[in-house]
Write the structure tokens for this entry.
Amino acid sequence: TEWELESPLLPPRFSSHAGFAVRIQNSTALVGASDTGSEGTVFAYEFNGSQWRLDQSITPPQRIGRANFGYAIGLDGDRLVIGAYGAFDHLGVAYLYERQGGSEWSPLISFDPFDVHDTLGAPPFFGDACAVSDDLVLIGAPYEDTDHGGDSGIVYAFRLDCGEDCTGSERIRKARCEAGDCALQRWRAFL
């Protein structure tokens, strides 16, 4: 067997640094362009059986300027987490999206380092790496100071925990943090 080059996934004109992060699952492909516009963009493509078609340009739900939104992408089914480590002078933020009815990606909640800290030292670059699997979201902060030293880094694990019969904002209210001694104080909803 041989690998053949298909048609490339071309980002729209005026995009910048497309391909910093890429994820694919079934017929969905996501391409991060972390320097597009003032915040960054993630381009969602669908494969129609013969070619890749741009389906949606995903931007942050709030204006955060020079955020590097799309530098990190995690994808699992109809759940998507996008990191923006440059937001808020490199404190960083990550956003969880869900795809409703197999069509458009909609913002659900955001995570930021203040979800797990009252105060911060040097910018941790929260959102530099992201992953999602079922009801578990992992967010890397590679420059966070820990007991192991300055810039030793950490990965935070957030789990949505409410059983099988709750969805949407009810699911958000019952969230908890699993990062050792961290106490998740709030989740912000965009619903």
